[in-house]
Specification:
5-stranded mixed sheet, alpha+beta, globular, 9 helices, Phosphoribosyl-aminoimidazole Synthetase, Chain A, domain 2, 60s Ribosomal Protein L30, Chain: A, homodimer, 7-stranded mixed sheet, 3 domains
Chain lengths: 350, 350
């Protein structure tokens, strides 16, 4: 076993000596923690793809394997609870690799004193979400920590999916000329969490968009498998972080039209009030698709005919210019760089 | 989504309204939580096998899939830390189904304020443990919770393994006449944790036995695949809980010889001082094997020639009498029922 002495903190962690909230925010600090601390420790080629799911070869089959820890606060919020979030989030990570999600595991870290009826409701919600998504919760684990050392319940779900032979989807497949589609309104989940956490009211109630997207992806794959280059679900850090990650992975630029971004009126009003930009706010039932231009219109039409894609929109395109950089044309005709955030706008959003 | 009103707490949870530490202890309370709360919510045939790993059919391959959350306190202890525990524990759960462990995921729930050099050491230890066990850490996730809502770091690892075609191992395959082997001294991990947590000194330092057992299992499978009916790693609840689970699953009785149980002298002394029975104390690098009688001696010899099995011993046999019950013949010639514990002797042992 390595000793304390033998291991020294890698340099480029911005002089932090301890974990700060931003290390969990899905922005630059998260990326640096992975890059400088976890990757050197775990180094292997599957991990270094850094997709939402690892792509594995096993007995001739192509598997996707993904894991996510869920620490959302509060446990219950408009539109869902930590249970369906934990199922849908991992189902979506698998679906974004083009895989058909099949099996989930769930590990619970319970805090002493958690009400059993709350846990029961969360478990029932997970079961219902799994059935709805067509996946099975096949194995699990339960640990209990003493009061004051947890926060009700944390859930880690991991999932296995099977990638059909003809599917080749990944962040590095985006290429200049491709079209960027988002499957619906952005920012709903983050603002729903924020509103209930802070006791804010914005007129119309804002609900989380928590949903499993594997059905929508399956429908898209029927006629457009070769045209889908990249799929990502823009969770922590929102559409902005997702596009930045794709631009970096593929070595391309991305240009979006700010006015084209679909945003619910209530979410837009809340964001203006709070000084937040919806492009950075988390979603839990939306996908970003980078697709071949000649298929874009047909895919948009298909999405709009599905409940989970009814507000889908083409929001931009992939460019050969400014590789690694995301640029937005603003409503008044100017343009601005949409950078990745350092830390996080909203902690514990998922 | 089910509503609070629609869901009522299942009856047989002993009138508890909230989670207590014992629900995480691997004893009767843990089993009841799974039986009455999680199973009805998640119901499916793979889950109902209730093995340490789920057994899945995928494209003609037989996969084992397992998950465990690690919440051990303290994070660092004699013989290991939470990092190698999280790797070895999940590797062992896969190996106990006869699978060759291949891929692991790891999800970290970090508490704000955790020292980065501690996290770095834990990650380095995980990487080393994975290489040692011959598995790859292929995907992961990191979340951060605010100070006072976590406990340094919790790690959930999930794993995928491949079960060779000729292997049929499971708790329900134990049958009367089989021999019970344990691969080495029992109770080391639990007493190591307890000693450092409580600041106890027992003369000789007691180290955790944290180790990956997949190599030992692979060696046993070469000549004895058909003779191995059941493998389990006796973690929470110790050898006693493991034998009770096997007896219940297979509908058989188990009779053991108390004097045959290998126990390190320092562990025995500590247990006597503390009024604990090593048969209930957790292990993290030992296995219990239920094997066909005619192979038992050869398997024992093989184990004893391996570092991880050098103290292996035959400790008892499977009987047709008293199905579901584990009986120990005591040192003075009497016999006692070795029941499963209700809650837990040592919280947060893994």
């Amino acid at each position: 076993m390595p000793s304390f002495d033998a291991w020294t903190c890698p340099a480029p962690l911005r002089d932090y000596q301890t974990i700060v909230m931003g290390h969990g925010g899905g922005g630059k600090l998260s990326a640096e923690l992975v890059q400088h601390l976890f990757l050197p420790a775990f180094r292997n080629s599957a991990l270094e793809q850094l997709g939402d799911a690892a792509l594995l070869q096993l007995e001739g089959a192509r598997l996707a394997f993904s894991t996510d820890a869920y620490v959302v606060r509060p446990l219950f919020f408009p539109g869902g609870n930590i249970g369906d979030l934990a199922v849908n989030g991992t189902v979506n990570d698998l679906a974004m690799s083009g895989a058909t999600p099949l099996f989930l595991s769930s590990a619970f870290i319970l805090e002493e004193g958690l009400a059993l009826d709350q846990l029961g409701l969360i478990a029932a919600t997970m079961g219902a979400a799994a059935r709805h998504a067509g996946v099975q919760l096949v194995t699990g684990d339960t640990k209990v920590v003493d009061r004051g050392h947890g926060d009700g319940v944390f859930i880690t779900t991991s999932g296995i999916g099977l990638i059909p032979p003809h599917v080749q989807i990944g962040p590095h497949f985006a290429r200049p000329g491709d079209v960027v589609i988002v499957s619906g309104t952005i920012g709903d989940h983050g603002i729903a969490i924020l509103s209930v956490r802070e006791g804010l009211e914005f007129g119309a109630p804002i609900e989380s968009d928590s949903a499993a997207l594997n059905g929508l992806v399956a429908d898209l794959l029927v006629d457009h498998a070769a045209a889908i280059h990249t799929l990502r679900d823009p969770t922590r850090g929102g559409v902005a972080s997702t596009l930045n990650e794709i631009a970096a992975a593929a070595g391309v630029g991305i240009r979006i039209e700010e006015r084209a971004l679909p945003v619910n009126a209530a979410v837009r009003a809340a964001c203006e009030l709070l000084g937040m930009d919806p492009i950075y706010v988390a979603n839990e039932g939306k996908l970003v698709a980078i697709v071949a231009r000649e298929h874009a219109d047909a895919m948009l039409t298909l999405m709009r005919n599905r409940p989970l894609g009814s507000k889908a929109a083409i929001i931009g395109e992939v460019t050969a210019e400014h590789p690694g950089v995301v640029v937005a044309r603003t409503g008044i005709g100017g343009s601005r760089i949409v950078d990745m955030q350092i830390g996080e706008q909203l902690p514990r959003i998922c």
